[in-house]
Amino acid sequence: MSTLHEFLSRWAGPARWVGLGGAVLVMVAAFLPWAYLPAALDNVTYYGEPSILQWLGFALGFVTAACLVASPILAAKASPRTRRLLNLNRGATAAATASLVYQAIAAIAVALELGGLITLEPGAWLGVVGAAVAALATRALHAGSDARLRYLPTPAWAQILGIVVVLALVLVAAAYGLGLEDPGAFVAFGTFCGLAAWVLARVGIMGWISAAAAANRSALVLASFVVAFVFPFTQNGSDANMSIAAGVLIFAATAMGLNIVVGLAGLLDLGYIAFLGAGAFTAATLSESAFATLGWHPPFPIVMLIAGCVSALLGLLIGSPTLRVSGDYLAIVTLAFGEIFRITMNNLDGSDGPNITRGSNGIPAIPNLDVFGFNFGESHVIAGFDIGRFANYYWLLLLVLALIIVVFVNLNKSRIGRGWVAIREDERAAEAMGVNVFGLKLLAFAGGAFLAGVAGSVKAHVDVSVTPDQYVFMESAFLVAGIVLGGMGTVGGVLVGAAILKLLPEKLRFFEDYRLLLFGLLLIVMMRFRPEGLLPDQRRQLEFHAEDDELAEEADAQALPDLATAGAALSATKEDRA
Amino acid sequence: MTTQVQITDEILVEEPLLSARQVTMQFGGLTAVNKVDLDIHPGEIVGLIGPNGAGKTTFFNCLTGMYQPTAGQVLFAGAVLPPQPRKVAVAGVARTFQNIRLFHNMTALENVMVGRYARTKTNAIEAILRLPRHRREEAETREVAQQWLDFVGLGDAAESLSRNMPYGDQRRLEIARALALEPKLLLLDEPTAGMNPQETREAEELITRIRGLGMAVLVIEHDMRFIFSLCDRVACLVRGEVLIDDVPEVVQNDPRVIEAYIGSPVDMPGEQEEAPRPDVSTLAPSKPVLEFPPNAINPIIGHRTKPGGRKDA
Amino acid sequence: MDLLIQQLINGLSLGALYALIAVGYTVVYGIVQLINFAHGEVFMMGAFGSYTTWMLMGSPTNLSIGVALGLVLPAMILGGVLVSVGTALLMERFAYRPLRNAPRLAPLISAIGLSIGLQEAVRLFYGQIPGFPDSRRAIPFPVIEGLTGRSIQVGGVTIQHSAIFTLGALLICAALLWWFVNKTRMGRAMQATSQDADTARLMGINVDKAIATAFAVGAALAAVAGVAHGLRYNNIDFQMGFMAGMKAFTAAVLGGIGNINGAVVGGLVLGIVEAMATTYIPGQFGSSAWKDVWAFAILILVLVFRPQGLLGAKVVDRA
């Protein structure tokens, strides 16, 4: 790659014009048809009337062109200070590369859905070729140093406005993406979202946004919650998408609980699903279902509490003997525990044991929740919008998720969180410094179990029936995969991981069979190339890259409190390196 | 077998803070530490020397609860120290490690804040709900940790990742982390290993200031000049037993000590040329081996025991 | 009395199966302190490898006992060993070796990925080979004349030929392994590496090769176990490695992980305990539906009361 770059960089001058040409081709391509038939990508067959997906392709081309044009102007006209805020050369390279990926994926999707390359119309070819030219040409540009927009002093209102705009875009994107029926269109759109975030990061805008987010944490939290709360109103009463969204939330809430155990305390729990199951079975046996085996039906808030406690008790039971031994054992013991749980639930059917769970039949017909007179099973009309059953549960699950996030964040920021980091870094040194290693591990383990139990009690009602085969090892593996994919130890990471792992299979039914295989490969590849996940916790990233001193220095530079100093320090180190 | 503990006049009046009585540690058939008696009084700096393999680190581990002595006991402030590192730390005995064991991906300040763990009480519920005690203790922890960083001279490095800090600073940070526990006794395992003379002088000055806070200090060291100029009392451990325990002037000139380090006088010639360096294992990986100025080399620094000598377990 | 002896023999033959797999966990753990979570899938690959060999030989049936035992069975074992050793070596080279200095969580998660990936690969693709049976369901294992379905009767006790095969295989493998580890150059290199990899490297030992050998040795034994499993249960499936692997891991911990003799003893003890539990635990909890629960309960009890295992493990905790 570097030799290619060396070769190309001799042509940096003309490359800008070639790249611009490529970008223009990409933009023109958006106005030409991409497919022969309307069945692919939600219809991309018109001349001069781009569909939304074609407009997205146009946007990438436009950004490439804009970066290419603006970069020399910025270099010539702006003060050195302003010039450094954005890195437009890098942005151009990223946008052109993103264009290529996007155009290629769109073309492949059309070819797969309509049957062969013959179904591609000139627009698709033009887009791919133009993007390829642009991507190659922009590689010749001088990459330059990191953008420093993140250090730009910005008034608080502008930062908050930025956060609101980003979240509004997220909402629009989520609503639009969920509405896409066509698998190819869904993949193309998902890819576009990822690519757009990447391009913004390369230009330097993402840095500014994350700095703004860090500076206005409460505004960010509030705005995200509002966005998540508003989401059902974008669905026009469609319960199908809300059911998927509820599934995502259950998964996210459970994974967030597991993230306390794995991401914060560093304990690999491979039987976590059992705690969710324990909560679900507890709620089911205490519910008003005709098949419930216990005659006691307390109100749901109490059931939630009991479910959490039952799970936490199991956590204590399994954790107190095993948390003293090495971490590797814990992984296997929790796996064994997961199996014990599944087998036991299967056996408590009245013939192999007392009848509590009705064995493999499970407990069906769990009625909808009715809390304080609000029936979750009924549709409600709020402000003219139809709010269906799953939307009701979606809101409840949102509360549960918020609760778990609060627990996660506040523990992480306390002395307990520091103790967990210390244990992860050097258990014996932590012990010698007076950190209660065993106590903190047990707290994470049992606390995580409690939260899973709470989530499970809601899941029982959402799913209507609870059976042992919903709580098998593979589900635990998915949860771990979600955390690993998103990023260990971060809230955003888990949400992203949960969204990807739950949404993709829902939208891509045709590859359901290959789902597990892909997850297995994903875990291996992630561990090999990006063990810290997509949105990593900075400390975790450092832990996974113990030999990377440059990364550590960068982390240091970013930790400096004063923005101006940080900028100066950064420019100094970068200059030295260059 | 054992040498009686000699107590100098000035500290005779006080009760010992830490008192090791007949501490013995056996590994299988191997006796690494044999009936060791050692008293440390409040505000005292005691040096523990001995050739490699003499059992210093094993004895250290008996004091810090890493090992439970096979026989004998360790009394701290009148009570038997429990054989658990955490309880020892909570009781008021803090330590540093021979090979630095900082939390590398935490900042200097966070490292010291971990040292405050045992001195704060916020529980999970209070932390989750951010109740007043959590907020008060967090602010206090931060402030106290910063004070300890200032105390060891790292006040400006609070936000540096500890893994990026220079070697000498890491040693000082480890001391700050231990001090944050507010111990009554500080155990330092080779605090100047790998330091240059300038840093060694600073360490000496730092330890003297720590004593000024009223803490007692026990130091394991190979740098004899450092030990003899710093300590009130020096105990020499040879083959698991206390050879002598007295004021530095006496220990320094005791022929048995010199013999323990260099062997019988016949072995003397030629030994001098062999690398008079501290144990290589005490150096952090990838750090350059540090130079010792020629005049600082004491003939008894860091010589290895004769073949057949024990290794510290 | 007959019942006791019968269950003892059942337990021993089941335990021999566990022991053959457990050796793989223990050898690898001993040398790199890694729990090769995907070892159960190596065992499964061994079983499928032997089945593939049989298919490639033209799925011979109705053979004379001599041909079946002298030619077909050894070929199947060899084929299984090749496949499982190949799997293990690829796994080591591309998934574990790059992670040797990573935090311990990383190889463990990789191992889960491998485990799922291998199961799914077999489930999805094995049956796609023309002429091969659908691998989504259990595949009947070939009938080996003289072994399958045959048994001898001693008093009131029935001994399956497959049980004799398993126990015999364990004896031979254990002897070979003992010889290999203690008497060959590579065996000594492995021992040195497990003591201290850095020093071993300084002494001129090819540590990578020693570690790869440990994976290969474990895989070879797992392949033998795969054949024994097929003969014992008369079928194989893509999920067979999961439970067997967990049991074998339990056996390795029971014996003291890192200790090869311990793995054998642990396997046998676990097998006997399982057999006895289904016979002698009274009431509903004695039913065979609970036997896995008892096995895992033992795992947890061992970790609580004797984490170093029955025969004692290597001390891994380095201060």
UniProtKB/TrEMBL annotation, chain A:
It comes from the Bacteria. InterPro entries: ABC_transp_permease (IPR001851), LivM-like (IPR043428). It is found in: Cell membrane. GO terms for cellular component: plasma membrane. CDD domains: TM_PBP1_LivM_like. It is a multi-pass membrane protein. The keyword Iron does not apply. GO terms for molecular function: branched-chain amino acid transmembrane transporter activity. Keywords: Cell membrane, Membrane, Transmembrane, Transmembrane helix. The chain crosses the membrane at residues 17-37, 52-76, 88-112, 124-144, 156-178, 184-201, 208-231, 243-265, 272-294, 300-317, 329-345, 393-411, 432-458, 478-501, 513-529. Pfam families: BPD_transp_2. This is Branched-chain amino acid ABC transporter permease. It comes from Propioniciclava flava. The lineage of its organism: Bacteria, Bacillati, Actinomycetota, Actinomycetes, Propionibacteriales.
From TrEMBL, chain C:
Its main location: membrane. GO terms for cellular component: plasma membrane. GO terms for molecular function: L-isoleucine transmembrane transporter activity; L-leucine transmembrane transporter activity; L-phenylalanine transmembrane transporter activity; L-valine transmembrane transporter activity. Pfam families: BPD_transp_2 (PF02653). InterPro entries: ABC_transp_permease, BCAA_transport_permease. The keyword Transmembrane helix applies. It is found in: Cell membrane. One of its GO terms (biological process) is L-alanine transport. The chain crosses the membrane at residues 12-35, 63-90, 163-181, 210-228, 249-273, 293-313. Keywords: Amino-acid transport, Cell inner membrane, Cell membrane, Membrane, Transmembrane, Transmembrane helix, Transport. The keyword Kinase does not apply. Belongs to the binding-protein-dependent transport system permease family. LivHM subfamily. PANTHER family: BRANCHED-CHAIN AMINO ACID TRANSPORT SYSTEM PERMEASE PROTEIN LIVH, HIGH-AFFINITY BRANCHED-CHAIN AMINO ACID TRANSPORT SYSTEM PERMEASE PROTEIN LIVH. This is Branched-chain amino acid ABC transporter permease. It comes from Propioniciclava flava. The lineage of its organism: Bacteria, Bacillati, Actinomycetota, Actinomycetes, Propionibacteriales.
